[in-house]
Amino acid sequence: MQFFKDTKIDFMGRKYIWISISVVMIVIGVVSLFLKGVNMGIEFSGGTEVRIRFIQERSVQEIRDKLGREGLGKAQIQQIKDQENEIMIRMPLIAEKGESAETILNSLRDESQMQKVKDGLIDLNIADASMIKAVLSAFPGIGEDRASDLAEAILKYRDDHAGIIKDSAEMQNLPEMTPEIALFLKERSFFGDFSVRRIEFIGPVVAPELRNKALLAIAGSLVGMLIYIWIRFQFQWGLAAIIALFHDVLITLGLFSIFGKEFNLPVVASFLTLVGYSVNDTIVVFDRIRENMRLKVGMDFEALINLSINQTLSRTVITSMLTWVVVIALFFLGGEVINPFAFVLFVGIVVGTYSSIYIASPILIVWKEIFLGKK
Known about the structure:
By secondary structure, the chain is of the alpha/beta class. Helix content is 62%, strand content 10%. The protein has a four-stranded antiparallel sheet with strand order 3-4-2-7. Strands 1-8 form a two-stranded parallel ribbon. A two-stranded parallel ribbon has the order 5-6. A hairpin with a 6-residue loop joins strand 3 (76-79) and strand 4. Helix 11 runs antiparallel to helix 12. It starts with 14 loop residues before the first helix and ends with a helix.
């Protein structure tokens, strides 16, 4: 299967123009990294992340004002686009205030609900199974097993209704629920304005360790690839491939910073995937160049590289396009959580394919002109 047959595109004829474009893109990305930085997830920065679903729509400014009144003004607030009335709140590590999710949740409650919490009532839109079971166990004659089953039934009903129970009437038909138990539970609980969809906490020791391991994973993969290509080809070929990989990572990371995507552990995996994908495409081109060097002895080196790229063009385009179709689906339809992961591959596949042609291959020509001359 071939999209292009017998093409004779002069890729190397404008190599310096494309290299200049890459340099400009890298400079823009590096400037963004210095000025804006990267939006680190709590895996690398440490802190608390709480994802909350409100019964009624709340604006980001309203939530920011409530957090600010409690001294939590440094919290990052983000609306979840594909989920109705859901908000993501990230609180960095703050020694003097603490970083517990309870502090965030209490700041979002109004005075009447806070008074209910102080009076010992539990919020059935937030309480876990053990808290609900502890309340139910005080009902005369209910027994531990029945209280546990009823607590699990309440949680299942809550999960089936997007984490929100609006009033006690909704639970009348639950298994094991009687009017007496419902009244008993109603007197000892209330229904808050929101539910907690997810809570994550990363401590001050774990975050730097995860960050260092992520950097080592990326650096180790680059060194391993350099050694492998050096052994299979020559040193300058491995160097060209690694420079192309740095090019891909810097441009992708720069765009990642410009668009403010969250850098988390799945994103590290996506960068490692990008590194592997890009070097694979580069090696395919290099292998054809090496093969043509044996078959076409004496041919001008730049013309030989043009020939090799044209011969592998169909394979490159087909492979990249098919992979990119899947990544496009992930990027636009995969949801908020997987979006940063898909963004890296969305950009990286294009940049990686481009660098195999216009970065890695021209480096071989430049190396030959500088160090090998006509040899």
